[in-house]
């Protein structure tokens, strides 16, 4: 089969069921032709065979999505349809039979191009990978610098904008996906966002060559970052350590950090998440999700301890879960002895760590830390 035949297979495969009706019509006529005298069709070109199939399917009232074919194939098919005149029934039956056999050999039909594949995999890919692939599909170039820029983290792009002129920033916003550009504008100070929005009006006369140079420069800055031994910034690493520490040690270390380096201590404090932070940062609709992940023994220990600083958090969790389960936890906790300090602190750490993990993997969303 020629390239034209093969290109025609994808839209035709979607009409196989209806095409089979056409085949039945053709086969009924074909049965009047003895197999030994059935005509050969190897003198017909691929485009002519495709034209016969298309003409037959259109006669049956089928609307084939021919617009999905490559432009050159559409043009070739149209020219062939215009050049052909009459085809006898035996030849038509032979072409239909050959084409139907080809369709019957097809096990799977795959989407055409990256955009089609993304539609097929909708909701199953990582959002960042989806953005990168969609940018690649738009550019049509595997080494397009804007592909790397589209895939960059929001913080990286904000850092780029801090060092660039308003016009470069406007070009950057114009080349990004609309969702990502909107997130950047929302993350910028209002005056800076307004300046960039106004600067977009100046991009009308920017040449494609200039856009390419800007893309190469920005992509180069993204790849010129020095290698880092640690994937997370120092403030987040320190906060993770303190999150896993008992409250007494955590408070003392935070106090010492503030005395030595207030800036670093402020960054660390922003990432600290404790059991007491739950009511302010956890949405009530996410409480059932969190409770399903917690060990009920940890929850009961904290309820049984009745520490003044934790009562409000316990009430918040119990008031936003199943009433029956909340009553069971309260009753079981009332029968427990007062937990020792180490067990109590360990339960607090485990619960806050689980909430933080659910937030990190996107299962729940925590509100930003105050201040």
- Please count the helical segments: 22
Count of domain modules: 3
How many strand units?
Answer: 0
Helix percent band: 55-70%
Q: Uncertain spans, ≥5 residues at pLDDT below 50?
A: 9-23, 29-33
Shape: elongated
The second-level CATH architecture of the largest domain is: Orthogonal Bundle
Element order, helices and strands? HHHHHHHHHHHHHHHHHHHHHH
Beta-strand content bin: under 5%
Would you tell me the structural class of the helices and strands? mainly alpha
Radius of gyration: 33 Å
CATH topology of the largest domain: Annexin V, domain 1
> CATH H level of the largest domain: which superfamily?
Flagellar motor switch protein FliG, alpha-alpha superhelical domain
Mean pLDDT: 80
Short description:
The protein is mainly α.
How does this structure look, described?
This protein is mainly alpha-helical. It folds into 3 domains: 102 residues, no CATH class; 104 residues, Annexin V, domain 1, CATH 1.10.220.30; 88 residues, Annexin V, domain 1, CATH 1.10.220. The longest helix is centred in the C-terminal third of the chain and has 20 residues. The N and C termini lie far apart (69 Å). The relative contact order is 0.06.
Ordered list of secondary-structure elements with their pairings:
Layout: H1 3-13, H2 16-30, H3 46-59, H4 71-83, H5 89-104, H6 113-120, H7 127-139, H8 145-151, H9 154-163, H10 166-175, H11 178-187, H12 190-199, H13 208-223, H14 234-243, H15 247-260, H16 262-271, H17 278-281, H18 287-293, H19 296-305, H20 308-319, H21 323-334, H22 341-360
Helix pairs in contact: 1-3, 2-5, 3-4, 6-7, 7-8, 8-13, 10-12, 14-16, 15-16, 19-21, 19-22
